[in-house]
Design a protein that fits this description.
About 35% of the residues lie in helices and about 15% in strands. The strands form 2 sheets. Strands 1, 2, 3, 4, 5, 8, 9 and 10 form an 8-stranded mixed sheet that branches. The chain folds into 2 domains: about 25-130 and about 250-300, 3-Layer(aba) Sandwich (D-Maltodextrin-Binding Protein, domain 2); about 135-250 and about 310-335, Periplasmic binding protein-like II (D-Maltodextrin-Binding Protein, domain 2, 3-Layer(aba) Sandwich), CATH 3.40.190.10. It is α/β, with parallel strands linked by helices and about 325 residues long. The chain has helices at about 45-60, 75-80, 95-100, 155, 175-200, 205-215, 225-235, 265-275, 275-285, 315-320, 320-335; strands at about 25, 35-40, 65-70, 90-95, 130-140, 165-170, 200-205, 220-225, 240, 250-255.
């Protein structure tokens, strides 16, 4: 995963005044002409957004947030593209950074004060890092009790006769998590690896099935977002998380200011707050995701990011060549029978 590690000068200082803030959650955008309103297209669910929205309301009572929940980042960008000539939203929050890069024509490039504190930075200032999310190999220890046979690497999962049986894997067309995993596989081991891996894979319709089937013991091995895996382990699930030694797949959770936003100043204030230490501590303590900041430690149960060997996936390639990558994966699945 490639990203800048430094930030240039010219940070924006933002200040807004106004009337008392109101937090709403309805399905209609662009209803208020108030300069102190932010229409938010939220990809993540309320379990992620609500704690931070509550803190924003307390910190900035003069800015109203109109939260509109959308089922996925693709749907959010499709809506913004349809509204391009007359933008109704101000901010997109949620989804991985490569999707923002792929839709850079829809996002305003803005440099914000808290960008400097994040460990992942977009040199073009399109996306702003709100959290870090890594994927681990998940093993069901009841279904696959032999610890000596547990995989240590992506490479292990493509071995003929893999001891763990079929590996649950969601189709990357419908799963952003699997798309990140796929681009990591290709980056680490090229397409010959993918051809071998899919022979060991049990293809599933989406991320939820990929996560649940290993938890429920329907497959012995799968992949999982680490925050969910850690929560399930705390709740007693018989699963084990393994961070691949040959490289860990990850996503930079992001937000962006929509180009042509009606309430651009308030939108900048909101996105900058998402990266603040206050909001990021809530991300760790209440949402239980990794912070995008270097000065906020990882949630309990997750290893420090410095201990992980992160795969260096070319974000531009993953974004611009997505259709080609997905088509090549489909060909591999068909060839595997």
């Amino acid at each position: 995963m490639r990203y800048a590690t430094t930030l240039g000068a010219g940070l924006l200082t933002l200040a807004l005044t106004g009337c008392a803030g109101v937090l709403t959650n309805n399905a209609t955008a662009g209803q208020s002409g108030d300069d102190n309103t932010v229409t938010l297209y939220a990809v993540s669910g309320p379990e992620v957004t609500d704690p931070i929205l509550g803190a924003f309301k307390s910190k900035h009572p003069g800015i109203k947030v109109n939260r509109i929940g959308l089922p996925g980042t693709g749907e959010a960008f499709a809506r913004v593209r349809a509204e391009k000539d007359r933008p109704l939203g101000d901010v997109i929050w949620g989804g991985s950074s490569e999707l923002y890069t792929a839709n850079a024509d829809l996002i305003a490039p803005v440099e914000l004060p808290n960008d400097a504190a994040t460990v992942a930075k977009d040199p073009d200032h399109i996306w702003h890092a709100t959290d870090l999310l890594f994927q681990a190999i998940a093993v069901n220890t009841d279904k696959f009790p032999d610890a000596a046979g547990h995989p240590k690497t992506f490479a292990d999962l493509a071995e003929p006769g893999y001891a763990g049986g079929k590996v649950g894997f969601a189709t990357p067309k419908s799963s952003g998590t699997s798309y990140s995993l796929l681009t990591t596989m290709v980056t680490l081991h090229d397409w010959d690896y993918v051809d071998r891996f899919v022979k060991n894979a049990r293809m599933l319709d989406g991320s939820t099935a990929m996560f649940n089937m290993v938890k429920d013991g329907e497959v012995g091995t799968s992949f999982i977002n680490e925050d969910l895996g850690a929560k399930w382990i705390d709740a007693g699930a018989k699963i084990k998380l393994i961070y691949p030694e040959d490289g860990v797949s990850g996503q930079i959770g992001s937000a962006g200011v929509i180009k042509g936003a009606q309430h651009e100043a308030a939108a900048k204030t909101f996105v900058d707050f998402l990266m603040s230490k206050e909001a990021q501590q809530i991300m760790v303590d209440e949402v239980q995701r990794r912070s995008s900041r270097g000065d906020v430690p990882a949630p309990k149960g997750l290893p420090p990011v410095e201990q992980l060997k992160r795969a260096d996936v070319d974000e531009k390639w993953a974004a611009e060549k997505k259709d080609e990558i997905l088509a090549k994966f489909d060909d591999a699945v068909k060839s595997a029978g």
